[in-house]
Specification:
This protein has a 10-stranded mixed beta sheet with strand order 1-2-3-4-9-31-30-32-28-29, with helices on one face. A 5-stranded antiparallel beta sheet has the order 10-36-12-33-34, covered by helices on one side. A 5-stranded antiparallel beta sheet has the order 14-13-27-15-16, with no helix packed on it. The N terminus is likely disordered. With about 575 residues, the chain is mostly beta strands. The protein is globular.
């Protein structure tokens, strides 16, 4: 790897234009902004500062060419802000007669003031703060009120205050005010951010842009492990996945997944995904629907299934032998739908982020990619060979997937319906298609990969943050989920395409005093100022990781270190074929 060179602004720009590796760019506010670069330059990001924090913050960019057409840019913006501090945030009990109703981070002003008065009466001076969030598409604005107490130099300094608040009957935790992301706050506009950016130019990169889950879907691996195993030049964590066994199989994608042209997981509603064409080293952001069915060979044709979804699941006996049976999903635990968004899901058929919906009556297909054995439990499991011929039918679930074949699991009312189709020796057609916006199946080849995400950040060159459509807005929780996930600053992972057709992969460190992280609105601002015309948010938080040469180059936020994830996006040194 080339060592980066530190150059004055004009020299750095010239080096980038001439194609010299490792240019180091330093700017200090609009007055020092570097001149525009030619639009055809293969290495340089837009020579403008990030739209992040105060306009006069210093910004440095350390640019390294990893391979022709593949560039890493390390960005540090701002400096640590001494006016930021640690504080105790009090969980506000629900204003409900139900004693088991959960507490929330926010409430109405009267409820927040009542809690603050009680904490103050217990000897801890508490304050009430109004939380105002940037306006997004159908969301944001005034979120509510929070209760806080104390001002500490370190997190540990707040422990005594937390103990006193607990003695008063309230839960609390110590948080850094730099992570607030409050709209209009002067203190919030100053601090330090650290980002890593990979730029893949399809005109010059001779390797392959790809994704991987590793050996199977359900055994999580770290981003650096996934990158090292495939000998990747660089890699970044990818989409959302199951973490809690109560929500499904840990490691299983919680949304769309395609690897090497094979559909491995169904979408969450029509949430957006990053679609990668590895042959062309191009990518796009697309909303994909689901069309899945199981049909007895010679039965109803595939196009009898309604575009954008599976046939209606009406329970036992609802499908005649020649009619398609709804295939609810692929490679996940039946009845558990992480992030929701499927037919018959409860409590909602719409996307609902970080929530596990349920459906007692489902048919799920499994491929060899899932793992060593399918999920066990009551129901029915049908084994199919590579031709779709039924080789065995089991009245319980849980087995190894036949080599080159697949299995079908049914639960609840769908057990009888699948059982009526699946007799040993019969042949079943299993269709699992992703549907594009025009209602047609997504065209794939052996170099097509799809990584799930959401919300959209930028569309057609304009910021369009679709948190409501994509399930990041919840009802009945006093905006507490929105406050923590959308409004507050967190580590973020972003992918998108710029005006030159290049793919940009971005990590922003967070949950640290030396790197504050991004709110979702700030993530959109960053994507746009990096030149992206289409961009999507991917899995962030403790998952946010970038690796170069198999080594982590950012600073993941989990206390235990780099988090094992579901999948990773890779820049491979050569084409897989």
């Amino acid at each position: 790897m080339e060592s980066p060179h530190k150059l004055p602004v004009k020299a750095a720009v010239a080096a980038l234009v001439l194609g010299l590796p490792g240019a180091f760019l330093t700017t200090a506010g609009p007055s020092a902004a570097s001149p525009s670069l030619p639009s055809g330059d293969a290495k340089a990001l837009p020579a403008v500062e990030l739209n992040l924090g105060a306009q006069d913050l210093p910004e440095t960019r350390d640019v390294t060419e990893l391979a022709p057409g593949l560039t890493r840019t390390s960005i540090t913006r701002g400096t640590p802000n001494p006016s930021l501090f640690w504080t105790a945030e009090v969980a506000i009990p629900a204003d409900s007669p139900d004693p088991d109703a959960p507490s929330s981070a926010l409430s109405g002003e009267a409820q927040a003031q009542s809690v603050a008065n009680a904490v103050t009466a217990a000897g801890v001076a508490a304050r009430v703060e109004k939380v105002q969030s940037p306006q997004l598409a159908g969301a944001g604005g005034d979120l509510g009120y929070r209760v806080r107490a104390g001002q500490f130099a370190t997190k540990d300094d707040g422990a005594a205050t937390v103990a006193r608040i607990k003695a008063a009957g309230y839960s609390s935790s110590v948080l850094y005010t730099g992570w607030d992301g409050d709209a209009g706050s002067t203190d919030q506009s100053r601090g330090q951010w650290k980002l890593e950016v990979l730029t893949i130019d399809p005109k010059q990169f001779k390797g392959e842009l790809s994704s991987t889950f590793g050996s199977d879907l359900v055994n999580r691996e770290t981003t650096s492990q996934l990158a090292a195993t495939d000998g990747a030049l660089a890699g970044m964590n990818g989409g959302y996945f199951v973490l809690d066994p109560k929500a499904g199989a840990p490691g299983d994608p919680a949304g769309t997944a395609v690897v090497n042209g094979e559909v491995l997981s169904e979408p969450v509603g029509d949430r957006p995904s990053l679609v990668i064409d590895g042959k062309k080293n191009e990518s796009s952001i697309q909303r994909l629907g689901w069309r899945g069915s199981v049909t007895a060979a010679g039965g109803a044709p595939e196009d009898s299934v309604p575009p954008g979804g599976a046939p209606e699941d009406t329970g036992a006996g609802s499908a005649a032998k020649d009619a398609p049976l709804a295939l609810d999903g692929i490679n996940r635990v039946p009845g558990l739908i992480r992030n929701c968004g499927g037919t018959g899901d409860a409590p909602t058929v719409l996307p609902l982020h970080d929530y596990t919906c349920t459906d007692p009556d489902e048919v799920i297909a499994f491929t060899e990619d899932f793992g060593s054995a399918t999920p066990s439990g009551p129901g029915l499991e049908v084994l199919l060979d590579s031709h779709g011929t039924v080789t065995a039918v089991s009245t319980t679930r849980g087995t190894a997937v036949p080599a080159g074949g697949r299995t079908l699991q049914a639960t609840g009312a769908d057990v009888a319906t699948l059982g009526s189709l699946a007799t040993v020796g019969a042949r079943l057609d299993v269709d699992a298609d992703l549907v594009s916006g025009d209602g047609k199946p997504l065209k794939t080849n052996a170099s097509t990969d799809v990584v799930n995400g959401g919300p959209v950040l930028v569309s057609g060159g304009t910021e369009n943050v679709t948190v409501k459509r994509d399930g990041m807005v919840r009802s009945g929780d006093n905006n507490s989920f929105y406050y923590g996930w959308v409004h507050k600053r967190n580590p973020r992972t972003i992918a998108g395409v710029d005006g030159q057709g290049r793919t940009l992969l971005v990590t922003a460190d967070g949950r640290q005093t030396a790197s504050l992280g991004l709110s979702i609105k700030e993530a959109a601002d960053v994507a746009r100022s990096l030149g992206m015309v289409d961009a999507i948010n991917l899995d962030g938080g403790g998952s946010t990781t970038m690796a170069v040469g198999g080594q982590v180059v950012n600073r993941p936020s989990d206390a235990s270190g780099e988090r094992p994830v579901g999948d990773a996006i890779l820049a491979l040194p050569r084409r897989k074929d």
